[in-house]
Specification:
The complex is a heterodimer of chains A (about 160) and B (about 120). By secondary structure, chain A is an alpha+beta fold. Chain A is built from three helices and five strands, in the order βααββαββ. In chain B, helix 2 links the parallel strand 3 and strand 4. Helix content of chain B is about 40%, strand content about 30%. The chains are: A alpha+beta (about 160), B alpha/beta (about 120).
C-alpha cells in the first residue's frame, strides 16, 4: 500500500456543525480556536492564520445568509465545517443541504468593490478569494453545497 | 460579546462622539453599530470616532456597517475616523482598500488631536 507523501500528512483536523440560531459564526470562531490549539506545536504564521480565518468566516457567513435562506429550518440544512492542516496546506471544507449558490454569482469574476464606490456590501467573497489560494464551490447531484478553501502555508 | 459605549469628548466641539466597540464586528453586531451611528447622527453629532481597540475581528458585514457610518456622517457634513485598529482589522481594511477612504489613527487620542 502506498504511503502518504509527507506533504499530505494530516497534522490536525477539527469539524462541527454551526447554526444561526445558536450563534453560528461564534461556533465557527470556536472551531478555529480549537483547530489552532491542536496545532500549538506547529503553529501557522500569524499573518497566514489571520487570512485563513477571514476567508473561513466569510464563507460561513455566506452559507448562513444564503444557503440557509428560505430553508425549511436549519435542522434540514446541516451547515458543517471541517478544518484540516496538512504539512504545507490549510483546508476548510463546508457542506450544507441548503439553497444552491445563485447562478449569477460567478466566483471567478467577483472582484473587490472599489473603495471610492463606498459599497456597503459585496466584500465577502472577494475577501475570501484574496485571503486564500483557492475558493471553490460545487453543488452535488444529491443536493449538497460544498465549498472548499485551500491555502499553502509556510511549513514550520 | 459586543458593546458600544458612546462618550462625548469635552475638549472638542460638542458634536464629536467616540463610539467604543468591543468584541467582533460581524454579522450579528453590524446592525447594532448601524443603529448606534444613526442615533448619533440624528441627534446632531455627525463627527464620529470609532474606537476599535477592543475589536479582535471584523468581517464584511462589519465593514459594511463602517462604510454605512461614513456615508451617514458625510451626508450631514461630518467626519468619521477610526482609532486603534488591531492587526486583523488592519488587514481587512488594507485588503479592501477602505483604509484609503477612511482615516485611521493609532489611538483615540491621536484621532482627537487631529479633529
Amino acid at each position: 500500500m502506498p504511503s502518504t507523501p509527507p506533504s499530505e500528512r494530516r497534522l490536525a483536523f477539527r469539524a462541527g456543525e454551526f447554526h444561526l440560531e445558536a450563534g453560528g459564526v461564534d461556533r465557527v470562531h470556536g472551531l478555529l480556536q480549537e483547530f489552532w490549539a491542536e496545532l500549538e506545536h506547529r503553529p501557522a504564521v500569524a499573518s497566514q492564520r489571520t487570512r485563513f480565518e477571514i476567508a473561513v468566516v466569510e464563507i460561513a457567513t455566506n452559507v448562513l445568509r444564503y444557503a440557509c435562506e428560505e430553508a425549511d429550518g436549519f435542522n434540514s440544512v446541516h451547515p458543517r465545517l471541517e478544518l484540516e492542516r496538512l504539512e504545507a496546506k490549510l483546508i476548510a471544507r463546508f457542506t450544507d443541504r441548503g439553497r444552491m449558490l445563485a447562478a449569477e454569482v460567478n466566483l471567478e469574476a467577483c472582484s473587490m468593490p472599489a473603495c471610492e464606490e463606498l459599497a456597503e456590501g459585496g466584500y465577502g467573497l472577494p475577501l475570501a478569494r484574496t485571503c486564500v489560494d483557492a475558493v471553490n464551490y460545487r453543488r452535488t447531484p444529491d443536493g449538497r453545497n460544498i465549498w472548499l478553501l485551500e491555502m499553502a502555508i509556510d511549513s514550520r | 460579546m459586543f458593546v458600544i459605549e458612546s462618550t462625548m469628548d469635552k475638549r472638542l466641539e460638542r458634536e464629536t462622539a467616540v463610539i467604543r466597540v468591543e468584541g467582533r464586528l460581524d454579522l450579528y453586531a453590524a446592525d447594532t453599530l448601524r443603529g448606534e451611528v444613526q442615533q448619533h447622527v440624528t441627534g446632531g453629532r455627525a463627527n464620529l470616532i470609532l474606537d476599535l481597540a477592543q475589536v479582535d475581528f471584523i468581517d464584511s458585514s462589519g465593514l459594511g456597517a463602517i462604510v454605512g457610518a461614513l456615508k451617514s456622517v458625510r451626508k450631514c457634513g461630518g467626519m468619521l475616523r477610526i482609532a486603534a485598529l488591531q492587526a486583523q482589522a488592519q488587514e481587512v481594511m488594507r485588503l479592501t482598500t477602505l483604509d484609503r477612504v477612511i482615516p485611521t489613527f493609532g489611538s483615540v487620542e491621536d484621532a482627537l488631536n487631529t479633529a
